[in-house]
C-alpha cells in the first residue's frame, strides 16, 4: 500500500510547489493579461487580416451572458496549479468596497465553482488507472502534467504571432469539408482505439477513450497519402489567407472521435505546429462542446462548432483545450497543422537559424536549440539520411511525436523495422535527440540495444548528443548498454 502513489495526498502539494516557484515574474503576468483589454496595446502584434476572413469572424466580444471575463487558471490549470479558488460568491467579491484577503489578492475571480476538485479528480483518475495493474506507473501522470504546465507557461511568451487575436471561426471551404465528410461516412464504423503514452494527461482517456479514423490508413476506403495531400492542399489557402504568410505542411493524422465525458487539458502544440485548423466533421451532442481558447488578449472564450465549422488558431501560442466534459454520444474532428515559412514582415523565404516564429533570447530558445542542434529547417524539407526508411523512420527522424504515435497505433510492427543501414526508428529518434519520440518507441517495444554500424542506441546518443544527459538517462533506465560500432569506419560517410 505504501508504495502505491497517491496524487492527492502527497503529490499535489509537491506539484503546486514545483510549479509555483519558478515564476514570480509570471505571477505578475497572469493579472496583467486580464487587465490588458486594450487590443492595440503593443503586447499584441498588429497585422492586417484579409477581409473575407474578417467578415466571417465570430463576434465574441459582445456576449452579454458573460458575467465575468476570465483568463488562465480558472477553468483548468494552464500556467499554474491549483486553479483559482477565489469564488465569485465570497463576501469580498460581493461587496464593492470590501477588503480583499491576502490569500486571494493574486487570484482571478472564479465564476465556475469548485474547479479545483474537478481537476484533482482528473489527475487522480490518471494516477489510479496507471497504478491499477500493480506496476505503479501513476506517478508518470504527475510528470507529464508538470511538463504540460511548464510548456504552457514557457512556450507562448517565446513566440511571434501572425494574427491579432490568435484564433477565429469560419465555415470550412466546401471542397475541404466534402473530402473529409466522404471519407468519414465511408469509414466511421472502422474507428480504432487511440493509444496514449503511459501517464499522458492531455485527454482523460482513462475515463473516456478516444478513437481515430486515420486518413493515412491505406486499408480504409479512400484513405492514404493521396487523400492526405488533398486535404493539406485544400486547407493551405485558408491558413495562408488568415495569417497573410506562406505556410508549409506539418502534420495531419486523421479524424479523432471523442466520446461522452471526454476532456482535453488546455495546452499549446509542440513546435513546429504553429498555424492550425480544427474542422468539426460530425457530432451527436446534447449541447455544443466548447473548445476553450485563451486569445492573445489573455481572455478565455468558449468556441462552439457545428459540423462544417473550421477554427483557425495559432496553436503554438494559443492555449486551447476542452475543460468541460462532452455531453452527448460523440464529436469527430480533424486537426491540420502548418508552419509559416516567413518571418513577420519578411518578404521572401526565411533562412535563419531559429524558426521564424521563435523569439531570440526567449525561454524557449535554449530548449529548442538543444533539441535542434543543426538549426532550423522546414519540417517538410527535412529528409532522413538513410535509405529504405519506413514512415516510422521518417517521423522519428523529424521528431514528429504525434504523427509517430498515430502511425505506431496503426502499424505496431514497424517499431523495429530496419532500413538498409540497419537503422530502426529508435536510432533516428536518437539522432534527432527527441526525448519524447525515443520514449514512445521504447514504450512500444523498440529493442533498446539494437546495434547498427554506428553503434548501439546509447553509443549513438553519446555520439550525437553528448550534452543531452536526459536522453542517456532515459536509455539507461531501459537497460541500454554502451556498444561501439562493430568495425570502425564501416559507414562513417553515410550520415
Ligand atoms: C490603447 O492603446 C493605444 C496605443 O498604445 C493608446 O493610444 C490608447 O490610449 C489606449 N486606450 C486605452 C483605453 O487604454
Ligand atoms: C504571442 O502570443 C502569446 C500568447 O498570447 C503571448 O504570450 C506572446 O507575448 C505573444 N508574442 C508577442 C511577440 O507578442
Ligand atoms: C464556457 O462553457 C462552460 C460550460 O458550458 C461555462 O460554465 C462557462 O461559463 C463558459 N465560459 C465562458 C467564458 O463563456
Automatic annotation (TrEMBL):
Cleaved signal peptide residues? 1-28
Instruction: Keywords in alphabetical order, please.
Output: ANK repeat, Repeat, Signal
InterPro entries for the chain: Ankyrin_rpt (IPR002110), Ankyrin_rpt-contain_sf (IPR036770)
Task: Please note every region of biased composition (Polar residues).
Answer: 43-60, 369-389
What species is given as this protein's source?
Answer: Fistulifera solaris
Give yes or no: UniProt keyword Repeat: yes
Q: What Pfam families does this protein's entry cite?
A: Ank_2
Q: What is this protein called?
A: Uncharacterized protein
Region Disordered: which residues? Answer: 41-60, 365-389
SUPFAM superfamilies documented for this protein: Ankyrin repeat
Where do the ANK repeats start and stop? 421-453
Amino acid at each position: 500500500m505504501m508504495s502505491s502513489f497517491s496524487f492527492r495526498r502527497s503529490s499535489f502539494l509537491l506539484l503546486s510547489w514545483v510549479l509555483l516557484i519558478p515564476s514570480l515574474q509570471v505571477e505578475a503576468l497572469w493579472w496583467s493579461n486580464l487587465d490588458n483589454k486594450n487590443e492595440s496595446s503593443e503586447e499584441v502584434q498588429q497585422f492586417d487580416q484579409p477581409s473575407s476572413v474578417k467578415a466571417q469572424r465570430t463576434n465574441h466580444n459582445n456576449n452579454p451572458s458573460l458575467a465575468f471575463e476570465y483568463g488562465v487558471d480558472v477553468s483548468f490549470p494552464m500556467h499554474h496549479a491549483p486553479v483559482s479558488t477565489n469564488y465569485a460568491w465570497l463576501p469580498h467579491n460581493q461587496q464593492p468596497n470590501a477588503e480583499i484577503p491576502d490569500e486571494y489578492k493574486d487570484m482571478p475571480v472564479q465564476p465556475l465553482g469548485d474547479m479545483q476538485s474537478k481537476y484533482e479528480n482528473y489527475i487522480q483518475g490518471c494516477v489510479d488507472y496507471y497504478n491499477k495493474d500493480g506496476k505503479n506507473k501513476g506517478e508518470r501522470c504527475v510528470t507529464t502534467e508538470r511538463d504540460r504546465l511548464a510548456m504552457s507557461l514557457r512556450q507562448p511568451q517565446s513566440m511571434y504571432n501572425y494574427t491579432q487575436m490568435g484564433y477565429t471561426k469560419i465555415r470550412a471551404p466546401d471542397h475541404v469539408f466534402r473530402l473529409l465528410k466522404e471519407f468519414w461516412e465511408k469509414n466511421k464504423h472502422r474507428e480504432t482505439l487511440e493509444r496514449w503514452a503511459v501517464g499522458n494527461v492531455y485527454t482523460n482517456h482513462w475515463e473516456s477513450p478516444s478513437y481515430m479514423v486515420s486518413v493515412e490508413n491505406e486499408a480504409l476506403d479512400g484513405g492514404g497519402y493521396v487523400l492526405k495531400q488533398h486535404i493539406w492542399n485544400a486547407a493551405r489557402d485558408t491558413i495562408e489567407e488568415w495569417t497573410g504568410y506562406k505556410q508549409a505542411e506539418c502534420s495531419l493524422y486523421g479524424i479523432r472521435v471523442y466520446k461522452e465525458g471526454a476532456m482535453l487539458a488546455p495546452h499549446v502544440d509542440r513546435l513546429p505546429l504553429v498555424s492550425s485548423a480544427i474542422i468539426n466533421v460530425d457530432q451527436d451532442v446534447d449541447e455544443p462542446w466548447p473548445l476553450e481558447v485563451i486569445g492573445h488578449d489573455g481572455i478565455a472564450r468558449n468556441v462552439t462548432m457545428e459540423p462544417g465549422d473550421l477554427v483557425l488558431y495559432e496553436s503554438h501560442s494559443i492555449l486551447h483545450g476542452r475543460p468541460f466534459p462532452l455531453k452527448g454520444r460523440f464529436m469527430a474532428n480533424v486537426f491540420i497543422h502548418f508552419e509559416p515559412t516567413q518571418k513577420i514582415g519578411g518578404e521572401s523565404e526565411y533562412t535563419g537559424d531559429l524558426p521564424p516564429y521563435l523569439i531570440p533570447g526567449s525561454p524557449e530558445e535554449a530548449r529548442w536549440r538543444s533539441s535542434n542542434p543543426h538549426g532550423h529547417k522546414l519540417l517538410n524539407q527535412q529528409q532522413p539520411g538513410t535509405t529504405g526508411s519506413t514512415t516510422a523512420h521518417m517521423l522519428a527522424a523529424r521528431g514528429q511525436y504525434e504523427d509517430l504515435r498515430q502511425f505506431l497505433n496503426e502499424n505496431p510492427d514497424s517499431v523495429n523495422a530496419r532500413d538498409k543501414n540497419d537503422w530502426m526508428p529508435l536510432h533516428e529518434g536518437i539522432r534527432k535527440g527527441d526525448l519524447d519520440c525515443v520514449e514512445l518507441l521504447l514504450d512500444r517495444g523498440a529493442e533498446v540495444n539494437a546495434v547498427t554500424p554506428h553503434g548501439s542506441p546509447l553509443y549513438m546518443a553519446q555520439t550525437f548528443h553528448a550534452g543531452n544527459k536526459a536522453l542517456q538517462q532515459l536509455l539507461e533506465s531501459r537497460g541500454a548498454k554502451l556498444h561501439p560500432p562493430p568495425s570502425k569506419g564501416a559507414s562513417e560517410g553515410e550520415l
